[in-house]
Amino acid sequence: MNRIHTLFNTKKERVLSIYFTAGFPALESTMEIMEAIQAGGADIIEIGVPYSDPVADGPTIQDSNMIALENGISLKKIFEQLKGFRAKIHIPVVMMGYLNPIMQYGMEAFCKKCKEVGVDGLILPDLPMQQFIDDYKELFEEYGLVNTFLISPQTSEKRIREIDENTNGFIYMVSSHSITGAKAGISDEQVAYFERVKAMNLKNPRLIGFGISDSETFAKASEYSQGAIIGSAFIKTVKDSKNLSGDIQKYIQSVIKQK
To answer: What is the pTM of this model?
Structure first.
């Protein structure tokens, strides 16, 4: 069974996924960050594949993408860094990236390499659902990869149900119609959206992302879903860190602590 399925079968609430940009802050930071995320108590590691035009991302993640690319990161390099990581990392690992660099690498070669190193799933925000169904669904299944689609407050109920039908891992609920980035609190409008989707009784678990940054927003998101994804706030922690492993663990523990 895929590690993502195992996780959601055994943990029904307060699931925390942490996003980081491969190759940031330094080219060879990947394994140190992954080990610290796991040690801190997160449930899923989300590896961002840097791209020069990350359309859904705000300035914090865009900046980390540019620094990583300047450091010399590439998909080939990421896979080299991930070789043998399963000797140390037992929690689910997802790769998040845009289609362009993956298509250049070759979709089948990419999926094959993901399975080879031990990646469990993919988040490709600019992959159209119909293209996934027509061209890649069987490929993903062949290599044991769970695909995750994003929904937002603007996504229709019909579309959400289609996504639920064509997903076999979890659904990424974008909390607001905006780019990524930590925001102050969660609005009544967002809560109404969370409640609307929760009431749909979808078959797949949901994780809320965009604007989740601390224990308060994590707890709030977890009231309406199985948990949350943190990206920009984590990247800021990494950027400002003087003690990478220690600061990462301290940050994650501050998020998951219950008052």
So the answer is: 0.94
